[in-house]
């Protein structure tokens, strides 16, 4: 009986986690669309925002994309003047990506939309529930606090 009970708990955790992921992903995609970005473009800008520059290879690795796919994604951000490509002065074969002022503004707008969404969620939670959510997120290494 004990093993069946544990298995059900794990299955329920898996189901709840998947549902949470899908809800959050849908909201993240909607927030990006509201500011004329794809979900991946918004995520790339968010990643680049606090960095001086990042190599295309590092970006591709971070997002689990091929270099070719990342090059296309960054190319669209460059066309929109939200990012810029530059060569590494130490190794001209390496392409570095940096966020532009326009990109930072879009990233800030995206963050504000997400903050408003989470504020609505937080209003439905009590103080203790919010603390539990944050603690669980830390344990799951979702939040880097």
Question: Which keywords apply here?
Answer:
145 residues; mainly alpha; three-stranded antiparallel β-sheet; 70% helix; 12% strand; WH_DNA-bd_sf; HTH marR-type domain-containing protein; DNA-binding transcription factor activity; WH-like_DNA-bd_sf; MarR/SlyA-like
What features would you describe in this structure?
The chain is 70% helix and 12% strand. By secondary structure, it is mainly alpha-helical. The chain has a single domain, classed as Winged helix-like DNA-binding domain superfamily/Winged helix DNA-binding domain (Arc Repressor Mutant, subunit A). It has a 3-stranded antiparallel β-sheet. The longest helix is centred in the N-terminal third of the chain and has 33 residues, at 2-34. The model has no long low-confidence stretch (mean pLDDT 91). It comes from Velamenicoccus archaeovorus. This is HTH marR-type domain-containing protein.
Number of helices: 6
Helical coverage, percent range:
55-70%
Unreliable residue runs? none
CATH topology type: Arc Repressor Mutant, subunit A
Secondary structural class:
mainly alpha
| Order of strands across the main sheet | 1-3-2
What distance separates the N and C termini?
38 Å
Characterize the main sheet.
3 strands, antiparallel
The CATH architecture comes to Orthogonal Bundle
Question: In CATH, what is the class?
Answer: Mainly Alpha
Number of domains: 1
Strand content: 5-15%
Under CATH, the homologous superfamily reads Winged helix-like DNA-binding domain superfamily/Winged helix DNA-binding domain
Cα Rg = 19 Å
- Number of E strands: 3
Principal-axis shape equals: globular
